[in-house]
Amino acid sequence: MSTVRVPTDHPYSVEIDYGAREKLPELAGSRSRIAVIASTRLEEAAVELGRLVGRGNAPVLNIGVPDGELAKTPAILTDCWRALADAGFTRSDLIIGIGGGATTDLAGFVAASWLRGVDFITVPTTVLAMVDAAVGGKTGIDLPEGKNLVGAFHEPQGVIADLDLLRTLPDREVSSGLAEVVKAGFVRDGRILDLIRESPEGSRDVTSARLAELIRRGVQFKADVVAGDLRETTTPVGGRLGRELLNYGHTLGHAIEAWEHFELRHGEAVALGMMFAAHLSRRLLGLSDDAVATHRELLEVLGLPTGYRAAPWEELRTLMGRDKKARGSSLRFVGLRNLGDPEIIAAPSERVLAECYAELGRD
């Protein structure tokens, strides 16, 4: 079993292994009540894990929510609050979020907001949730106006990344999750890029040791970043970007997600955002043509898109202006001088932004 420690103010561990869910009862400890928030698509797994963690005779409340981003709405949040109220949930009780990143984001925000904060554990069931949403303490819900506009920082008691839960994951979901892993390779951990190049097929095989290593490296990258800047308050100096480093590809990616009404997978949108950021970095930071080509090559072998022209630029620009990383009317992007050498691009010209989006349409 691989254990990645997240040494924040309230340290916790991410357990990564096949069968890691057996650690759940020990992590949960003794509780009066336990609520399991899970996608209705995962009802069978939620019941199994509820029984596992409830072996100490704690009553388990199962709360089913819609799949994907449809769970991250104010209406579903209110449904969860009311279910906890009806069950008499107290501050000494525990919430467990089981599912993809949207479900764990929702469960974390339910825990952060209920009685001003109760304990929670995440059991991510997708590659994306394991390497991104379940680690780092960010929780939240979406509004029609944009993604993750309402949320809170609330760290889990721990994360159980059971690789067995990936066995039935569709190929498209595996690829989507790997977008966040290859992002770590572009901005810091070059070994990730080597692992993907050496075996693209093994990188997408949910039973392979290679994918397990990629997941471990993705989790370690995020743990290292958030440990130094949990609340994204570090002022970037040179290549030391703090938590903002995690936003590579996300500014345009989130806008595309919103324009597509979240029908495009998060990783697919972020892949497009990374290609856009690579074009922007070539124009403004001198990123080489070879590095831009590396982006295209590795994203494509992972089954991710590299070209996009569906949305009008003016509409995407408006959506980016609502992004929580914007400063007033100015946009900020994480860019690259070289692979592994990030730098903030602040307030690029509107002309350059539009031209780089046009380049994305030619990929």
TrEMBL record:
Zn(2+) binds at residues 180, 250, 266. GO terms for molecular function: 3-dehydroquinate synthase activity; shikimate kinase activity. Residues 177-326 form the 3-dehydroquinate synthase C-terminal domain. It holds the Pfam family DHQ_synthase. Binds 1 divalent metal cation per subunit. Can use either Co(2+) or Zn(2+). Its EC number is 4.2.3.4. Pathway: Metabolic intermediate biosynthesis; chorismate biosynthesis; chorismate from D-erythrose 4-phosphate and phosphoenolpyruvate: step 2/7. Its main location: cytoplasm. Keywords: Amino-acid biosynthesis, Aromatic amino acid biosynthesis, Cobalt, Cytoplasm, Kinase, Lyase, Metal-binding, NAD, Nucleotide-binding, Transferase, Zinc. Its cofactor is NAD(+); Co(2+); Zn(2+). It is found in: Cytoplasm. It catalyses: 7-phospho-2-dehydro-3-deoxy-D-arabino-heptonate = 3-dehydroquinate + phosphate. NAD(+) binds at residues 67-72, 101-105, 125-126, 138, 147. Residues 64-175 form the 3-dehydroquinate synthase N-terminal domain. It is an enzyme of class 4 (lyase). Catalyzes the conversion of 3-deoxy-D-arabino-heptulosonate 7-phosphate (DAHP) to dehydroquinate (DHQ). PANTHER family: 3-DEHYDROQUINATE SYNTHASE, 3-DEHYDROQUINATE SYNTHASE, CHLOROPLASTIC. This is 3-dehydroquinate synthase. It comes from Brooklawnia cerclae.
